[in-house]
Amino acid sequence: MYPPEYRYTKEHEWVHVSGESAAVGITHHAQDQLGDVVFVELPDVGAKLQANGAFGTVESVKAVSDIYAPIGGDVTEVNEALIDMPELLNSDPHGAGWLVRLKIFDATELEALMNAGEYAEYVAAEGG
Amino acid sequence: MLAALGIESIEDLFESIPEDLRYRGRPAIPDGLSEYEILDYFRARAEEGAKGYASFLGAGAYRHFRPVIIDALATRGEFLTAYTPYQAEISQGILTTIFEFQTMVAQLTGMEAANASMYDGSTAVPEAGTMAARITRRGRLLAARSLHPEYRQVLDTYYRHQHLPVETVRYDRDSGQIDLADLESKLSDEVAAVIVQSPNFFGVIDKTREAAELAHRRGALLIVIFSEAAALGILQPTAEADIVAGELQSFAHPTSYGGPCVGVLATKMKYIRQMPGRLVGETVDAGGNRAFCLTLATREQHIRRAKATSNICTNQALVALMATIYMTVFGKQGLRELAEQNLAKARYLAAAVRANAGSLVFSGPFFNEFVARPGSGDGARVNEAALEKNIVGGLELGRLYPELDGALLVCATEVNRREEMDRYAACFGPPAGGIGIE
Amino acid sequence: MSKIRRHQTQNELLIFERSSPGKIGYRLPPLDVPAVAADEALGAENVRGEIAGFPEVSEVEIIRHFTRLSTWNYAIDLGLYPLGSCTMKYNPRLNEAVARIEGIVDAHPYQPQALAQGAMRIQQTLERYLAHIAGMDAVTLQPAAGAHGELTGILLIRAYLQSQGDAREVVLIPDSAHGTNPATAAIAGYKVKEIASNERGTIDMASLAAAIDDSVAALMVTNPNTLGIFEQDIAEVAALLHDRGAQLYMDGANMNALVGVARPGDFGVDVMHLNLHKTFSTPHGGGGPGAGPVAVKSHLEPFLPVPRIAEEAGALRYDHDRPRSIGRVRAFYGNFGVLVRALAYILAHGGDGLRNATLDAVLNANYIRKGIENDYHLPYDAPSMHECVFSHNKQVARGVKTGDIAKRLIDYGFHPYTVSFPLIVHGALMIEPTETESKAELDLFIDALKSIAREVETDPQLVLRAPQTTRTSRVDETRAARKPILIWEPPANGA
After folding, report:
1. For A90, B112, B229, B324, which has the most beta carbons within 10 A of its beta carbon?
2. Is residue B48, in this structure, part of any structural domain at all?
3. Contact (CB<8Å) C119/B45
4. Interchain CB distance below 8 Å, A87 and C482
5. How far is Cα C366 from Cα C433, in angstroms, rounded to an integer?
6. Is residue B214 part of a domain?
7. Is the pLDDT of residue B434 over 60?
8. Does the beta-carbon distance from C467 to B89 stay under 8 Å?
């Protein structure tokens, strides 16, 4: 369910780092709780994200959730496909439903995050 | 029912209200009245008014013919006694009419989308202003002094505590239109929007396109306001506007001492998520049939709470329905003919005022209202003479615009007959007793 | 008796799709003055062409169009409409008649005050009656709706505190509050701090005491609260706030539980709004127009919106000269037509009648509560006032949520209750019958809810597929929100 090479937050975001670059998204559990996603609001390319800072929102028909950056970095790319197909967040949250790509500031910030096993346990403990 | 609840008296159900907080006084409200007594009470109040008077008042509340089928349809219990259409399956009637309302407002204003209505024109203005501030992420507004003065007062009340200062832009003393040089000098990179009314409070068609160009050059939006919807039947909408807000009372409801009214808010599709208020959208039901529902609700207070686009919780659905029926009755041809009649009546009255030694204060093109002064004396004198002929004259402007003290804002619509316009215009002439005697 | 059975319903296109070029449904009197060329009068650049897409239909088509659409609505006139906190009571038709009397309906807001004495007397009388009902000192009728009244009230508090030297920064709001409360506080420039409820469902005094400091401007409370429970400690709450120089705002959404029985002014409220479209029977009209008068204690009176009505030697006039006023919150004098209807309601009931309405409203809510308490989970068992709040806890194990039960109620011929509110109850069913329902209608409603509870046990799919008897089945709200279509557009191929 949860890719082992990713890291996870308690706010249900994931981050996938390769070298200096990282992709960020929301987890399967997060999209399941939200229901059908209808709209995604993302930052502009060039925005600076701080770890744990809110950088966008995901909306379903009757709920809005802030999305928090798992790790700090400069936004190098945003997933434009989500503008027309927000449903990608439901159908493929860990893949085609990625939100932004970052050039990361400090890889040591990853150490504070959960691995896939820890996250699965965390979700189970939350009653999900 | 008491037995089912196992209680002796209904009062037992109120035990959770501490004894010392209960009201034990005698009601200071008289005993209940019958239907006939209540009708008599309100008929007596109506007699203390201006029944049977001709009127030349406008200034944000307009007198128009109102097809009788509006009330025949809008008082159907299925419309009158329903609530906000949360349950789409049993609210398709009201949802469909709101979708038609949104469509007609967009067609009239030349915008791409409109909401389900606002309380009224005056409160739509600050809602449009905060919407512009959110879109531009800027914190100042410029409002024309020729915007309805009570709308400007509402704007001040709303913004005094929102760190959204509003600066006033002068009008040109000759044309009655916005002073473009003053606008240009006050525009800066901090200005979120310029607010211009057209026809403006003086009845003058304003320079909205020129204002849009100046605003856009500095990255600000243009908000166009209207209070006389009848003008939309003939006026070219300002395609350059980013937001249009206004009052549709002319198409919906009698003047009713100023309310209820129905505000509108229309904009471009790209700004839709920053728009406050209810929105109805098209979709399908489980059987694949076209259906409508409330949509984009995540902008609203019941979901976003303290972060909502507005605290607004309802629209003015029934008055919006009345407007929808009115616009349907008049339709494409009727709105044009109605506007042409208003234009012709106001021109006739203006000519009659001039023929009686009165003058028009502004030279800009006007729709069905204009500012006039008598040849001698002031507007109060004109209106006193008119009252003796059972005519309520135009609005005396001194309290709202000290610089226009003594002038009158006069409105003629399709309901004003030629004969009553002649009688009112005569009041602008020399007072009875002869020329030169004041 | 079952409340409904199947009935023919008419299909109907949108009005734009019914249009044919050249059709008209209006006729104006002939113009009795010379016609004017629009291009010359306004300048050709200011004159529009035809309004593309606008309707062109005959009168009978208009009548049929809107009549057919009306039959697709549920309404109070068809039966119980138990939306909690919305107070959907019967709307007397007398109110409609008096609001349309000539001389009232066509009064102009700027007609000379000597010729507006009747309209002003109506306002003054209503202000006095509402002040009495609320136990307050003065009332403004200007706000156009409840949320608009809230904004007015919080601006009054701000202006008052400012006059005392400091407007302060924080407004406290219980977690059971309506969403308009935090939205209003934010718009009035305050930060919102949430106060937890206790196990009784009312304000937790310890949490409140801990949250109050000199930065707190006010507490916004609904009483009875959104669980339909009276805040028993309200007098202590008021004292606690006043001791620290803060104000108590009351959301009057639930006044239908109190009129004639208890007065907010007597338990320490400084300012509150009333919803004339709830408590005082003016029609909801599919979502407005309403009216949200604001009642205040005397220390807030100088700050009320302008103008105020003043009386001298029997003559009424508007006083605009009020330097401490917060200004206007709306053009003219508020939703006057709604005020007329509310006054008619008060006159019809009289003081004792208003009190009796309150008693019956509370009786009806408790009768429903008793009727279904074995079938649905009651999260808070404190006594109910005018509404009762259950949860879907018993049904959710079978995969049925409050929204599904609501949709199934439609199949039984009822409008659903308020779904999923208040937020502090997970899966809430919030039920407010009002006083104008008969025992027979209440019994049908109770039977329907009991029957649905049984269906959840025996055939949950039946409930999950509801409604099945409506002309429109479950509506795809996701599709509407993903690709918003907000206006009708002519087909691209012109067909």
Report:
1. B324
2. no
3. yes
4. yes
5. 10
6. yes
7. no
8. yes
Tally Cβ neighbours within 10 Å of residue C438: 10
Q: Which chains touch B (3 or more CB pairs under 8 A)?
A: A, C
Residue B178's domain comprises 69-326
Closest approach of B106 to chain A, Cα-based (Å): 24
User: Do residues B217 and B312 both lie within one domain?
Assistant: yes
Q: Both B129 and B97 in a single domain?
A: yes
Taking CA–CA distances from B294, the nearest residue in chain A reads: A61
Domain with residue B242: its CATH number is 3.40.640.10
Selected residue of B12, B29, B151, B363 to mutate for chain C interface (largest C Cβ count, 10 A): B29
pLDDT per residue over C105-137, tens digit each? Answer: 999 999 999 999 999 999 999 999 999 999 999
Strand partners, C318: C309
C235 with C378, same domain: the answer is no
Task: Give chain A positions within 8 Å (CB) of B134.
Answer: none
Which overall architecture, per CATH, does domain A7-125 show?
Beta Barrel (2.40)
Plot region of C290 (φ>0 → left; ψ -120 to 50 → alpha; else → beta): beta
- For an interface test with B, which of A40, A61, A66, A83 has the most B Cβ atoms less than 10 Å from its Cβ? A61
Contacts made by residues A118-125, CB under 8 angstroms, sequence distance 24+: A118/A8, A119/A2, A119/A8, A119/A27, A120/A1, A120/A2, A122/A8, A122/A10, A123/A27, A123/A29
pTM of the model: 0.96
- Whether the per-residue pLDDT at B300 is higher than 90: the answer is no
Which tokens is C12 given?
Answer: 């109907």
**pLDDT confidence of residue C495:** 46
Considering its fold, how many domains does chain C have in total? 3
pLDDT at A127: 65
Question: Which of B297, B326, B355 delimits the end of a domain?
Answer: B326
Closest CA to B378 of B390, B363, B355, B394: B394
Same domain, C365 and C313: no
**Final residue of a structural domain among C348, C374, C403:** C348
For the beta carbon of residue C81, count every other beta carbon within 10 angstroms: 27
* CB atoms B297 and A62 under 8 Å: yes
Shared domain check, C216 and C151:
yes
Query: B89 near C470, Cβ under 8 Å?
Result: yes
In which domain, by residue range, is C219 found?
A: 95-348
Q: Which chains touch C (3 or more CB pairs under 8 A)?
A: A, B
Model confidence band, residue B28 (pLDDT cutoffs 50, 70, 90): confident
Helices and strands (DSSP H and E) totals, chain C = 15, 12
ipTM (interface pTM):
0.97
**Is any Cβ of chain B less than 8 angstroms from the Cβ of A83?**
no
**Closest chain C residue to A88, measured at CA:** C482
Q: pLDDT digits over B122-173, tens only?
A: 999 999 999 999 999 999 999 999 999 999 999 999 988 777 899 999 999 9
Residue A59 touches partner C, C-beta closer than 8 Å: yes
pLDDT tens digits, one per residue of A54-78 = 999 999 887 888 999 999 999 999 9
Q: So where are chain A's domains?
A: 7-125
C297 in Cβ contact with C265 (< 8 Å): yes
Subunit contact C118:B45, Cβ cutoff 8 A: yes
Q: Which residue has the tokens 């329905």?
A: B321
